[in-house]
Description:
Number of domains: 1
Radius of gyration: 21 Å
Low-confidence stretches: none
Amino acid sequence: MRTGDDKSGNENYLLRLTLLSVNGSNQNNKSGPNTSKYGSMGVGFNIGFEKRKLISDNLSIYCGSDLLTSYNINTNEYDNISQKSKTWTISTGLGVVLGFVYKINSEINITAEVLPSFNYSYGRSTLTSNGVDTAQKNSGFTYGLSDTGANLTLSFRLVKKN
């Protein structure tokens, strides 16, 4: 879920803000006497720019870039072997924005974009097994296009343009 998406600027150059990206999941598994629990939560903030080029009266293409930031936490718990793990990760990266805008009328637009990205992440994991804690540091690079890197947006202008 993304909230606070905002674009401001003139018709050709826009500042892009994603004030809050939120994701999460919770899963409980039971197989006979064995149970496991999994949970995750993440938040993010992005800022960037885009440059638009008018193709026709109602169609524009655009490209730009976003600075990407996020924080994620994951937990796993296995009851049958008395084991728990907790991992937190912070990441930052650069996304390349490619998209188009179709203007239905002066108040309604449809936008489609992809955001291939390159990210660096750093985090820590703690594994507790039979009362003994083991900690490790995690870091690495990721790149590509994921299912969270594609958007289809229907936007409405709330204030009439003069």
